[in-house]
Design brief:
The chain is an alpha/beta fold. It has a domain of 184 residues: Alpha/Beta hydrolase fold, catalytic domain (Rossmann fold), CATH 3.40.50. The chain is built from 18 helices and 14 strands. Helix 4 links the parallel strand 9 and strand 10. It is globular.
Length: 500
């Protein structure tokens, strides 16, 4: 490493990186882990990095993967970054000391429904992890059609393949930044968490990480080949081209991005069940597909079979996840009793099950109750199913949490909604870009509590409470302190028995 403390240099096989040192933390940003996925590489598996000559400036964020915009109501809540350029398969590294040896590593996979997000989002700044002694890496991967288009032609889950390539880069290079390639924790939220649950089932990802964290996303949300082919066919129809990979790859990138974004907007806001089938519930037209090769089996079935049994897991959800999807579009107060019962029935619950939710929440509106049903169907129950599967065959420990900080009055009715925990985990709760989601007065104590649990898990392999089992079901409720409760909301959990 260079002796220039302000412009540290790290030599890799691909070339030399010049980073930035600030306030005791060193960062290397926009580092390519694979070749640009365009031109001759478009819609192919990730290709090796093209080496460079001389010093490469790693002082700023790299290009973001092509993507559309979030649906309008959510844009203020999830500020996006768009950086043009071909080298979108890049990653960022924050380290307390590039000259160190054997530091724990946390690799972050961002969320965004597999169609949005990037590693350049400000709330994913890894400085706090580095200050806590953890080398933090945040990655990009291909999104939407570029990353998850499926035609049954042997090319599948390119976005997941990108994630594997990034983890291979970490294995091969992270020691140059002070990290231990044998002590890597992979963590992610929403689509990032679903990705990680899928990586746990992928042979190509085996051995690339020692521990895993899935925040608000688990094993339930994958596509069958038939579902994925339906999405590809509908995309081709919207583009007016034949339903083949070559035909779609020939579409100009900007036009393809907009067509894919329009498809996502339709399924998330006005999906026709006759057209979309079960995707009207998951609302994820671009997601990992169980193709039989890259992803040989459904992730939950893989977990039940003992795949990745040696990998300790931290998994959980936020108490009020579903409010994110009902409050910003001004829908929560428009939900009446018949709408609640129809929606709950679509998720598999009967009238008596809805009554179980109502009894626990006297005075709750139908919209409030539906938000809790959505929370459980989409996030809580999948996390618990994964924990149960692992507990069933004596796998490495699994820890379960529920993030409970923030009440609806704190942030315009959102409460501890989907995405609320991320800035607390990263200690970026003071960033202006997250105030619309978590309010103007986030608790520093809650941020310290969440962050410290993640650091403990990455560093020591345990977050600080008892592992999950199917008898007591200990669950950490994370707010300003951690409170462990056995089987919280047990009656509501049992309402989902037999429903997948």
């Amino acid at each position: 490493m260079s002796q220039d403390v302000d412009r540290p240099r790290v030599a890799l096989d691909a070339g030399t990186l010049v980073g930035r040192a600030h306030d005791g933390i060193t960062s290397f940003l926009g580092v390519p882990y694979a070749a640009p996925p365009f031109g001759a590489n478009r819609m192919l598996s990730p290709q090796p990095v093209v080496p460079w000559q001389g010093d490469r400036d790693a002082g700023r964020m790299g290009p973001t993967a092509p993507k559309g915009k979030y649906p309008l109501p959510f844009q203020p809540l999830f500020p996006e970054v768009e950086i043009e350029g071909d080298e979108c398969l890049n990653l960022n590294v924050w380290t307390p000391d590039p000259g160190a040896n054997g530091l724990p590593v946390l690799v972050w996979i961002h969320g965004g429904s597999f169609v949005n997000g990037s590693n350049s989002v400000a709330e994913y700044d890894g400085t706090a992890f580095a200050r806590s002694g953890v080398v933090c890496v945040t990655i990009n991967y291909r999104l939407a059609a570029e990353g998850f288009l499926f035609f049954g032609d042997g090319a599948a889950n390119l976005g997941l393949q990108d994630q594997v390539a990034a983890l291979e880069w970490v294995r091969d290079n992270i020691s140059a930044f002070g990290g231990d390639p044998g002590n890597v924790t992979v963590a992610g939220e929403s689509a990032g968490a679903m990705s990680i649950a899928t990586l746990l089932a992928m042979p190509s990802a085996g051995g690339l990480f020692a521990r895993a964290v899935t925040q608000s996303g688990a094993t339930a949300h994958t596509l069958t080949p038939e579902q994925a082919m339906t999405v590809s066919r509908l995309l081709a129809e919207n583009l007016g081209v034949p339903a083949t990979r070559d035909a779609i790859a020939a579409v100009p990138l900007d036009r393809l991005v907009q067509a894919a974004a329009a498809l996502v907007d339709e399924v998330q806001t006005s999906a026709d069940p006759a057209k979309w089938g079960s995707l009207v519930l998951s609302k994820l037209p671009f997601a990992p597909v169980v193709d039989g090769r890259i992803l040989p089996a459904h992730p939950l079935e893989a977990a039940q079979a003992g795949t990745s049994a040696s990998v300790p897991l931290l998994t959980g959800w936020n108490r009020d996840e579903g409010r994110l999807f009902l409050v910003p579009p001004n829908m929560i107060d428009a939900i009446d009793e018949p709408t609640l019962l129809v929606a709950a029935g679509a998720y598999g619950l009967g009238v008596e099950d809805v009554e179980t939710y109502r009894v626990a929440r006297p005075g709750a509106s139908p919209g409030d109750l539906l938000a809790m049903v959505i929370t459980d169907w989409f996030y809580a129950i999948p996390a618990l199913r994964l924990a149960e599967a692992r507990a069933g065959y004596g796998a490495a420990p699994t820890w379960v949490y529920r993030f409970d900080h923030l009440e609806p009055a704190d942030n315009n009715g959102l409460g501890a909604c989907h995405g609320a925990e991320v800035p607390f985990v990263f200690r970026t709760e003071g960033d202006a870009g997250v105030s619309a989601r978590i309010g103007d007065c986030p608790s520093e104590a809650a941020a310290a509590t969440a962050h410290d649990a993640w650091v403990s898990f990455a560093r020591d392999g345990a977050p600080g409470w008892e592992p999950y089992d199917t008898v007591r079901r200990p669950t950490a409720l994370i707010a300003e302190k951690v409170r462990v409760v056995d089987d919280p909301r047990a009656d509501e959990r049992r309402a989902w028995d037999g429903i997948r």
